């Protein structure tokens, strides 16, 4: 019997690529996104799609109930949905910051709470939480985004300790710079969050330059393979990275914080 995966945020980028890759490798894949018009090619490929909003518990409940009714189990949950609410911390409306947490962290928890009883009854399951190297490093203008990803890392580690006794594992994938819509959305949000005549506008221009650089060379398809490895490893690791450079920068930022601070200040100058 085929394994069953739920993947959130499949309308574009890594989630879209992961849905296709899991399906191509024999999974029954269920997932969704708010933009259902961008799911037609996935539906045509045989992926079970529907409208999904991770801030709406009813929407999540409908998805989980559908999977259980049609497949009777959930092997893997990939918590991929998320975005970057970038901008100066002085100027971002608190409502926007709250939305950032609601999508990137509390939305993960909402869906996971619905899936865990199914996995406990089965006696197995794998929860893949898509964080970022931004959970351990930072740049100016990304304060709220970094906070959600750092929180997701700790949340996943605590969850893993709680559910291992039931045969369930919770692990983290930390993508680095990836060619996707994400960076464009982050920069657009940063500009939207600027006040009139903001003194931070030059910093946003620098961020735009940084996120548009060729340094970010990984593709969504590259990360889809990392998602799959995290979902299928017999002995799962606590963290998964696409490239050794992603792991290296996380280690650098965590173990040499003053040197990292000096480096990032020079890059953003």
Question: Strand content of the residues, in percent?
Answer: 5-15%
Enumerate the strands of the largest sheet in spatial order, edge to edge or round the barrel.
Answer: 3-2-1-4-5-6-9
The termini sit apart by 55 Å
Average pLDDT confidence is 93
Query: Main β-sheet, in a few words?
Result: 7 strands, parallel
Q: Give me the oligomer status.
A: single chain
Number of helices: 10
- Class by helix and strand content? alpha/beta
Can you tell me the residue ranges where pLDDT is under 50 for at least 5 consecutive residues? none
Order of helices and strands: EHEHEHEHEHEEHHEHEHH
* Overall radius of gyration: 18 Å
Number of E-type strands: 9
- What portion of residues is helical? 40-55%
The backbone outline, from C-alpha atoms, is globular
Helix and strand arrangement:
Blueprint: E1 4-8, H1 13-24, E2 28-33, H2 40-45, E3 48-51, H3 57-71, E4 76-79, H4 94-122, E5 125-130, H5 143-163, E6 168-173, E7 178-179, H6 182-192, H7 201-211, E8 218-219, H8 220-232, E9 239-240, H9 244-255, H10 257-267
Parallel strand pairs: 1-2, 1-4, 2-3, 4-5, 5-6, 6-9, 7-8
Helix pairs in contact: 1-8, 3-4, 4-5, 6-7, 9-10
């Amino acid at each position: 019997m085929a394994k069953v995966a739920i993947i959130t945020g499949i309308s574009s980028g890594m989630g879209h690529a992961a849905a296709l890759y899991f399906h191509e490798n024999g999974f029954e894949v269920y997932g969704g996104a708010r933009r259902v018009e961008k799911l037609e090619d996935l539906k045509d490929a045989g992926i079970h799609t529907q409208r999904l909003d991770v801030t709406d518990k009813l929407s999540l409940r409908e998805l989980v109930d559908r999977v259980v009714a049609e497949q009777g189990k959930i092997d893997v949950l990939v918590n991929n949905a998320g975005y970057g609410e970038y901008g100066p911390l002085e100027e971002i409306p608190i409502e926007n910051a709250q939305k950032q947490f609601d999508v990137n962290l509390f939305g993960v928890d909402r869906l996971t709470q619905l899936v865990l009883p199914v996995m406990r009854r089965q006696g197995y399951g794998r929860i893949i939480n898509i964080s970022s190297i931004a959970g351990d490093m930072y740049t100016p203008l990304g304060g709220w985004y970094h906070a959600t990803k750092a929180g997701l890392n700790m949340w996943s580690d605590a969850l893993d300790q709680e559910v291992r006794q039931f045969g369930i594992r919770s692990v983290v994938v930390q993508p680095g710079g990836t060619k996707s819509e994400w960076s464009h959305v982050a920069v657009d949000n940063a500009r939207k969050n600027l006040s009139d005549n903001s003194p931070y506008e030059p910093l946003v221009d620098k961020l735009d330059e940084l996120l548009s650089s060729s340094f970010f060379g990984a593709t969504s398809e590259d990360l889809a393979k990392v998602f799959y490895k995290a979902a299928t490893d017999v002995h799962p690791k606590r963290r998964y990275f696409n490239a050794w450079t992603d792991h290296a920068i996380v280690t650098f930022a965590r173990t040499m914080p003053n040197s990292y601070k000096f480096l990032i200040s020079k890059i953003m100058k």
